[in-house]
Every structure is written in C-alpha cells, then in structure tokens.
Design brief:
By secondary structure, the protein is mostly helical. It has one domain (16-100, 123-178): Aldehyde Dehydrogenase, Chain A, domain 1 (3-Layer(aba) Sandwich), CATH 3.40.605.10. It has helices at residues 18-37, 44-60, 62-73, 77-103, 140-151, 165-178, and strands at 6-7, 15-16, 106-108, 119-121, 128-132, 155-159. Helix 5 (140-151) links the parallel strand 5 (128-132) and strand 6. Helix 3 runs antiparallel to helix 6 (165-178). The chain is elongated. It starts with 5 loop residues before the first strand and ends with a helix. 19% of the residues are buried.
C-alpha cells in the first residue's frame, strides 16, 4: 500500500495528489491481472487478433502519430514513418507469421540420470508486464517490447515518457480507447 504524498502548491492548501495516482495504478494492475487470470490472452487466435488490431490502429491513426512526433521533435512525416513506425509494423507482421512456431513446446535432451524421462520446454505467459517508454523514439521503443509481450500472451501496462507530451498523449488515446483496461 502506498502512503499519500502531500504536495504544497503555490497559493492553495496542501493537497494529496500521488495517492490517487497510486490507487489508480493499483486498480489498473489488478484489473490486468484479473484479465490475464480469466485466460483471455492464452489462445494463439486471440494473440494474433490483438496484434492485427494494434497494426490496424497504427495504420489508421498514422497521421495523428506523425503530427504528435512533429510537435515534439519537428520531424518530418517520412522520417517518422521510417524511424518510428516501420519497425513496429514489421515486428507485428513477423510475430503474427511465426507465433505458432514460437508457441510450440520444444523437446530437450534429458540427462542420463533421468533416463526414462523426457524433457520439454513449454512457453507460457507470465501475466502483467510493464513497458516504460523512452523519450527519444517514443513509438518504436515502446511498441516493440509491447508487441513481444502481447505475442507471448501477457497483458501490457505501457507507460510512455512524460518528456514527449504530444506523442504520449496520442499513443495513450489510441491504446486506451481500443484495448481493455
């Protein structure tokens, strides 16, 4: 449990700010855990559909994302698409194509002391993952780990950088309005 932090502002009474943020964060993480425990992210079909949905959302909102990067960095559309968005597009496509192979159990060698036994590595998701986005390439360096985590069957809490306010707001509006919390 987090203790409330009292913050003194210039001309007003002290107010408790971070307690609400931590309470909301605890609620968010708990809802993500419940979503994972209910088994919504287990099937390959669901994982692929989630990745396709993310790919389509990025394509549909590309103009919004490019405009936000331009406000934060003054980068052109071409540079933004090339540096920020082309890698997540490619990552999603490769992940969807190879997800079935990556999700299969793999047979491993068993040592002699366990002779009659057989060994397997079975990929299973962990649960809730946190992706903290950097400021310098806010889309690419936030979305690629999120894509990998979604493909593995985890849920993702994505925390974009506060330095790139416009890019973070654009990404948050797209993701929060289209994916369950």
């Amino acid at each position: 449990m987090f203790e409330p932090l009292v913050v003194q502002t210039d001309k007003s009474e002290p107010c408790v700010i971070l307690f609400a943020i931590f309470t909301t964060m605890n609620q968010l993480i708990e809802s993500q855990r419940n979503y994972f425990r209910e088994g919504h992210t287990r099937s390959l079909k669901t994982r692929k559909n989630t990745l396709r949905k993310l790919h389509n959302l990025l394509l549909e909102n590309e103009a919004l994302l490019v405009e936000a990067i331009h406000k934060d960095f003054k980068k052109s559309r071409l540079v933004t698409v090339e540096n920020e968005l082309s890698l997540p597009y490619g990552e999603i496509n490769v992940t969807i194509r190879k997800l079935g192979k990556w999700s299969r159990s793999k047979r491993n060698k068993t040592n002699l002391s366990n002779f009659p036994a057989s060994s397997r590595t079975i990929p299973i998701p962990f649960g809730v993952t946190l992706v903290i986005g950097p400021w310098n390439y806010p889309y690419m360096l936030s979305l690629i780990p999120a894509i990998s985590s979604l493909a593995a069957g985890n849920t993702v809490v994505l925390k974009p950088s506060e330095v790139t306010a416009h890019s973070s707001a654009a990404m948050a509006s797209i993701i929060n309005s289209n994916f369950p919390r």
